[in-house]
Fold this protein.
Amino acid sequence: MNAIAIAGQSPFDAIRQTRPDGTEFWSARDLMNVEGYQRWEKFKTGLSRAMATAKNQGHDVDSNFRRSEKVSGSRGPAAEDYELSRFAAYLVAMNGEPNMPAVAQAQAYFAIQTRVAETTPALTGEELLAHAVLEAASTIKRIDAERLQLAAKVEHDAPLVAKAEAHSASTTSINRQDFAREVQTWGKKIHGIWIRQKHVMAFLAHKGMTVRGERSDAGQATATAIRNGWAENSKYTDETTGRSFVTTRLLPKGQDVAWKWITSYVEANGTLELPRQIHGGDAA
């Protein structure tokens, strides 16, 4: 049985039942069929999750999920069933398989109807319909507001993303001191934080881009970085003193990798400074 309208009536309304005292309920077995499940065991998974959700939220599970039995035919054995309140049916739908079209329809139906029942229990007929329309309009307005907030966040994060991705197309290398200055500028502009150059150096060393510790080659590109095409060691001669130094240059691929590391770490921690328990992270 598919979740299609029957003579203009929602299939979820069609299977709704009423007790002698006037309270409504949905048979879990009927709901399973309308939502398109073929096996009770598969449907029971979402049902069990719904019951756990209700319990965790402090609702009375027994009253919302009344255990019952359903008989198929005059001689068939009684099958496990539950009489679901509107709220319980809503939870079952929300814990169902989202890729099943009928489950998605059930989610929409019970979400709207549960909200209407909670806010306007006394309304009937045209008043109820009018209120449902107003509720739908309010929901659309809220979704639009959330969309605007998301757009604003995307606009705010765009420089961050652009900076992280820009080096994918870079064709030139950069020495680690200049790279650290780029990170400092980015941190101040995007996050409003001051990132010290030594923290950039320590972070690159910690991630294996450069040699760390007190070794004589500390700060130079690691064998792994060189093998992966992330960085290279380049000899530099000071024009004033005539002394030669070995400096690390981050290749385009290494810049791209380093920016992804840095943006992810700062986004999660609000700083690029490594925890105290991480030792040997500073590079010369």
